[in-house]
């Protein structure tokens, strides 16, 4: 799994960080998402899927492969 972020779509809600703090963080100045792990280990895939599902701006894209 590869994680892609559409940064301009991010509304800084922080839901991704709550769901998967090892993969996502937020910039201090504006709260926009920071991707910490572009290819997270399989142990984190469920929480990354949850983060993508709860993102109110649909700014997280998961690419299988």
Write the layout of secondary structure elements.
Layout: E1 2-5, H1 15-19, E2 24-26, E3 33-35, H2 45-54, E4 60-63
Antiparallel strand pairs: 1-4, 2-3
Summarize this, please?
By secondary structure, the chain is α+β, with helices and mostly antiparallel strands. It has 2 helices and 4 strands; from the N terminus they run βαββαβ. It has a single domain (2-63), classed as 2-Layer Sandwich (Alpha-Beta Plaits), CATH 3.30.70.20.
Can you give a write-up of this model?
By secondary structure, this protein is an alpha+beta fold. The protein has one domain: Alpha-Beta Plaits. Helix content is 23%, strand content 22%. The protein has 2 helices and 4 strands; from the N terminus they run E-H-E-E-H-E. Strands 1-4 form a two-stranded antiparallel sheet. Strands 2-3 form a two-stranded antiparallel sheet. Strand 2 and strand 3 form a beta hairpin. The chain is globular. The N and C termini lie close together (6 Å).
Cα separation of the termini: 6 Å
How helical, in percent, are the residues?
A: 10-25%
Q: Which CATH architecture would you pick?
A: 2-Layer Sandwich
Number of helices: 2
Q: What order do the strands of the largest sheet run in, or round the barrel if closed?
A: 1-4
* Unreliably modeled segments: none
- Average pLDDT over all residues: 97
Order of helical and strand elements: EHEEHE
Number of strands: 4
Strand content: 15-25%
